[in-house]
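Q: A reviewer asked whether we had any structural model of the full assembly, not just the individual parts. We don't, so I'm hoping you can provide one. Inputs are below.
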Amino acid sequence: MKTNLTISNITKIYPGCIANKNISLEFESGKIYALLGENGAGKSTLVKILSGVIMPDEGQIFLNNKTLKLNSPVDAKKNNIGMVFQHFNLFETLSVFENLIIDSNETRDNLRKKIISIMEKYNFSIDLDIPVLNLSAGQKQKVEIIRCLIRGPEVLIMDEPTSVLTEQETIELFSSLKQFSEEGILIIYITHKLKEVMSLCDEVAVMRKGELVSISKIVDEKIETLANKMVGQNLKTIKKKKLSTTSSDQLIKITNLNFKSEDPFETNLEEINFTVSRGECLGIAGISGNGQSELFQVLSGEIISDKKSIEFNKNFIGDQNPQQRREYLMAFSPEDRLEQAAVPQMKIFENVALNNFKSSNFFKNGLINESKIKQHAKKIISDFNVNTDNIELKSQFLSGGNLQKLIIGRELITSPDLLICFNPTWGLDVGAINYIHETLIKINQQNKSIILISTDTDELLKLSDKISVIYKGKLSKKMNADEVTSEKLGILMGGGEFD
Amino acid sequence: MENLIKIIKRDQPSRTIFFLTPVLAIFLTLVAGGLIFYILGFEPFEALKFFFIVPIADMYGFSELLLKATPLCLIAIGLSFCFKSNNWNIGAEGQLTFGAIVSGGVALLFYNQEGFYILPIVILAGAIGGMLYASIPAILKTYFNTNEILVSLMLVYVSKLILDYLVVGPWSNPEGFNFPETRQFSDSARLPLLAEGLRIHAGIFLALAAVVISWFIFYKTYLGFQMKVSGFSLKTAKYAGYKGKKMIILVFLISGACAGLAGVGEITGPIGQLHREVSPDYGFTAIIVAFLGRLNPVGIIFASLIVAITYLGAETAQIFMQIPKYTGQVFQGMILFFLLASDYLLFFKIKFIGSKK
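A: Here is a predicted structure for the entire assembly that you could use as a starting point for your response.
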């Protein structure tokens, strides 16, 4: 008997954003389905609804023509919907077997037999009695898959499963998934990687900004057409007035910059090379998790690199910390407003003192120069339209937009030559987004430079003069923003290549 | 029927509750303590009176309270430097012991000499000893990524064994009939007493100075600002470009110095020599004091007085009620337990609602 999963008119609205708008899809066992989309397209929301983590505002789910009510992940499990998340939910210090028995009611002996037979069937070889921490990422994922298989699932949902896998592990995973599919398990594969969709899946549903864009058979698609659908052709946003500077006045030059991380969930940076001229805005596009955060930290000095790898204003500063880099007139606006760029529990004026450097005189002889800081804070608030007049207020009481204005203001009021910002408008309302965009355009016009790392393609196309794409820690060549098509961008972001 | 009580997350931690929870914790400790006494067959109010009121009812008792509160306050002030900046120094007891060993060693060098210069040298030696000992977990943490909780805690036992070895072996009093203790220090190596007939000594001024200085550092200096930021978010501290390693080592050194000074206060104050037990776990109890005082210098003064009562109360209770003096530790444990539990109220509020059927 074939498994049939139908979702009809699913809508989920979060304050200020529609995550899923009237999504209807039909799945049938025997095929592998891809759910494709950029960050924020609404894939994760849909998956969370299917696995019972969140509940939709409207719409229904049917499994084999019966209405399914998923109030919690337990309900999903009971109804034979298995889910493998991108980040593993395993106890590192427990053995593989102990991890598997935790949420099972079967006796140890039965379960062990069952696991062994599953492993034989699918050619998995994992030692059941060693701690999970000794496993590779691919093996950990297999443990997660086995955990689903024990329950004899009808539906298996895989959320970006290859992001932590090696090339070889990916091939193994794909052959297992094909085997599951042949055996009648319905597989829904969530990804933003175009190549994988092409090589693994039978049908593909593309989502963009909460809406379902298309449903089609893979045989009818090419990487280019999918890229177009994923990124969207809606590029008629007003681009900024370009400066006709053919300025060769180079401000920052990155040469052979590498970063190798010990954390498997971080991305290594490989051979990064680029330059930015005065007055230029370089946009760095990419699906999140491809090394953006690492690149930001290397550029800001939170991660120190080789001295010669970064040349700023004719100084080699690769080995300098953020404070020292600010002295050379660099400024940084990190992605995470609440946990990095600002301290919500501290007062507004105290947050202003966070980008202290030697010549800012916020601290003199080791003492806090409170009057200086307060005066500075007041200026930022009025110059950058932060909607409050109380600098003694804790910054947690500012809205996201006002906090971001405060942060950008704090970074810009020193008139830096280069501002490096990472997703500066993430999660903001339209008014605040426009304000930030205008501000960034303005400083470009003052011949100051910007490196804009962003996962929002519209934003990049609106603000950038040049665009590079980062994929798996590698940066593509710089392209002129007006020559970039959504197709090109989509292919590069999905790991493809073109001439 | 479900959900008689609903727990709701607060939008932001309440400021009032922040200072009220220590009071609530103390109240709950008294209730639970009374209950324990009742179960043991004592009249609860009578027992609590013996524990908390009788010991400080007279001048001598009150001076003893200050005597016990002095090291607690001093160590807790030092620890708050660490705790405020996200460094978990659990080994103040070891730093106290090692400070006592170094200063005691110096004091023994001068055992048959008199002179105004001896005491300052002895005090300085104690501070340096504490700093040296605290620098071990700090350096291991910054350069070898070890966990400071484990290292600092285990070093406590190392220091106690070193002390044991010294007072039994090389430093034991040649005229001491093999008792595990050193010679008595000369009078010049002793902290002056504040009043005739009482044991309270000049160490209390060290503690008060620490309170004032730490208040100044916490709220008025760049170091204090950096500690505050690091305490809230290490990511922000990194982004701001603070020299994280330097700060970690600095706060451990300050903390070690305070613990070392507390050790000096003990051996050059009431004890006057080194022996096996220079501290009734002041270093551990001070952790409770630091948190009960909300890592605030003024709060720590009050907290150290309150916790000091449990030491005195335990002794009184042992004498008058034949209860083991370890009851004091039970009370200390309960205070911490209830404090941590009531801290839950900082982030959540409890709402009672009617039962749904």
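A: Points you may want to mention in the reply: The interface with chain A takes residues 12, 220-225, 228-229, 232-233, 235-236, 238-243 of chain B (CB under 8 Å). The longest strand of chain B covers residues 5-9.
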